[in-house]
Specification:
Oligomer: heterodimer
Helix content of chain B: 40-55%
Number of helices of chain B: 15
Radius of gyration of chain B: 20 Å
Strand content of chain B: 5-15%
Order of helices and strands of chain B: HEHHHEEHHHEHHHEHEEHEHHEH
Strand content of chain A: 5-15%
Number of strands of chain B: 9
Number of helices of chain A: 9
Structural class of chain A: alpha/beta
Distance between the termini of chain B: 14 Å
Order of helices and strands of chain A: HHHHEHEHEHEHEH
Helix content of chain A: 40-55%
């Protein structure tokens, strides 16, 4: 018996999800409609968060979504996804933590953002180049260590110097992030919670 | 006016007895090197220089304790008291002034839980270590014993200078150890997909982790055990997971250490708000709940007052980019509200950050030493 992709993802029914996705893709179903189902599943995870689901569940759903996308992505390349917004994100230089960032990236992709993930230990100039090249609506910093504050501030200063700041919303997330950090950076938002961060990003862009 | 020495004050705070003031000390290691003008890489390469930085900061700032005498792999060297993780060391795999960070990768597979359950923690690593690292198990033991020896030498140097050290032994909680061994993601999958196997392996490991830790305390002569609890909180897993995979083993840890006259120092990173009510089952006035600023410390006071001493929780960001007057105001609030009626220690929320500002650390210490509500 098959299960809807969305429900399989939201229930962490890994085997069912991946097998069904492959079968339906091979049978010729439009990849974009399969993607929409996966995104619906991520939405269901979001609805369950803070009720039945916890951080570990976000992590598991992010992993499943990522693996589903690896199956789907080759078929999606020729199509133009109707993204709700573009985002650049990375963990600044000196910090190699990526768990929170990876969860956030999958959640954001799950609701239709086009995300350029720069990875960890990202130099200032890489952030600037990505903003210039990718022209995102949003820039996200992920930080678990305080030494990331200074490079993030350098990015913010350079964005301002190069007249790139005004067109961007900037959000910073991570375990050490507080209102003091938001103020220090001059960011638009801050969070210690991936789901809350996503909500803020959607609000920035006027998405429900 | 001070009427107690640091250990009298520490013990009084733990037991909710009257104190002349709350103990005040940061968990300062990486920040000591930066404050003394040496890089993290230099500190890891030059053991004498790193120790001198820790000693100098103790004298410069005048807080109650050094947390440990030097830089070590693992919080404090011990024989199999946690996951044998690999590190990204400054000046080697990490940048010259980067922080040391765990290079997290699976140290055993899902298929190894049964073996762990049948062999127990110590014998399992005798078999597994070479498979995992490509190095013989004897190399791990040799490294850990070397670490132990230099810890003892460092400790003696500090003690001879009259510097008290509060961290003689550390141990990963059972859940923490397993999560580090499997990686956060894989372990979370294991909990869903093979929970019985995980539980059996934990059952087989718990008492050996306790024994290994008690042995460290015996060697180091210490009376505090730092229990690393970073991944079992109610922010990460539902209480059903906590109740099955963290709480029973943590209770065994605490009971074993307390029965030996050792104070369990519960290092609680992430938000433990949902779990705090369980801690009232710990023996009264015997443990410390060390909060990292993620758990609401004021709410924790309401829950644990009169039962479990609270330490914390000046946020890393405040030390790093805050202003001294902000640090002072926050420390005063902690002393007034969490310190009311005793059972409180003013400490950094987790490790004092590497980029702590000198004036902020001084504001923290001076508030602790001189502020009386």
């Amino acid at each position: 018996m098959t299960k809807e992709l969305a429900a399989a993802l939201a229930d962490f029914d890994e085997d069912m999800l991946l097998e069904t996705l492959k079968t339906r893709l091979e049978s010729g179903e439009p990849p974009l409609s399969l993607l929409k189902e996966l995104q619906k599943g991520m939405g269901m995870v979001g609805e369950r968060y803070n009720k039945d689901y916890f951080l570990s569940d976000l992590m598991l759903s992010a992993d499943l979504f990522q693996r589903s996308m690896e199956i789907l992505a080759p078929s999606l390349t020729a199509q133009t996804g109707d993204f709700v917004g573009r985002m650049v994100i990375g963990t600044p230089k000196g910090d190699i933590h990526d768990l929170g960032k990876n969860i956030f990236c999958s959640l954001a992709r799950g609701v239709g953002f086009e995300v350029m993930d720069l990875g960890v230990n990202v130099p200032v100039e890489t952030f600037i180049k990505a903003v210039k090249d990718f022209k995102p609506h949003l820039l996200g910093f992920s930080a678990l260590l305080t030494p990331g504050f200074t490079p993030m501030k350098e990015v913010m200063d350079q964005l301002a110097d190069q007249n790139l700041r005004a067109s961007l919303k900037v959000i910073v997330g991570g375990g050490v992030v507080t209102p003091t950090v938001k103020e220090f950076l001059g960011a638009d938002g801050f969070t210690t919670d991936a789901m809350d961060g996503l909500k803020q990003c959607k609000t920035f862009l006027g998405i429900d | 006016m001070e009427t107690m020495n640091v250990w009298e004050r520490f013990n009084a705070a733990v037991s909710f007895s009257e104190v002349d003031r709350a103990p005040v000390f940061p968990m300062l290691v990486s920040g000591a090197a930066r404050l003394c003008g040496i890089t993290q890489g230099e500190a890891w390469r030059d053991h004498d220089k790193a120790r001198e930085a820790i000693i100098k900061c103790y004298y410069d700032f005048g807080y109650d304790f050094a947390c440990k005498p030097n830089f070590y792999y693992d919080q404090v060297p011990g024989i199999l008291t946690g996951a044998p993780v690999r590190y990204r060391t400054p000046g080697k795999k990490g940048g010259e002034d980067d922080l040391i960070q765990v290079n997290e990768r699976p140290l055993f597979g899902r298929e190894d839980y049964d073996k762990l359950a049948s062999l127990g923690w110590n014998a399992f690593w005798e078999e597994q270590y070479e498979k995992m690292s490509g190095k013989p198990f004897s190399a791990l033991i040799k490294t850990q014993e070397f670490g132990h020896r230099i810890y003892s030498e460092d400790l003696k140097i500090l003690e001879d200078k009259g510097i008290p050290v509060y961290l003689p032994a550390t141990v990963d909680s059972v859940l923490m150890a397993f999560s580090l061994c499997r990686t956060f993601l894989e372990f979370s999958k294991d909990l869903r997909q093979v929970p019985d196997k995980v539980e059996k392996a934990m059952q087989a490991s718990c008492d050996e982790l306790i024994k290994n830790t008690l042995k460290m305390c015996e060697i180091n002569g210490g009376k505090i055990v730092f229990i690393v609890l970073e991944r079992g909180s109610g922010a990460i897993y539902p209480l059903s997971i906590f109740e099955r995979f963290e709480w029973p083993f943590l209770k065994r840890f605490v009971d074993a250490f307390v029965s030996e006259g050792i104070t369990p120092w519960l290092h609680l990173d992430t938000d433990w708000s949902l779990n705090l009510p369980y801690f009232k089952e710990f023996p009264k006035g015997k443990c410390v709940a060390d909060l990292d600023s993620t758990t609401n410390i004021f709410r924790a006071k309401e829950v644990l007052d009169g039962h479990v001493c609270i330490s914390g929780d000046v946020p890393a960001s405040l030390f790093s980019i805050g202003k001294p007057e902000e640090v002072t105001a926050y420390c005063q609030k902690l002393i007034r509200e969490v310190g009311k009626g005793g059972g409180f220690m003013l400490t950094s929320g987790c490790e004092c950050p590497v980029d702590v500002k000198r004036e902020n650390l001084m504001a923290f210490v001076e508030t602790g030493l001189y502020y009386r509500p």
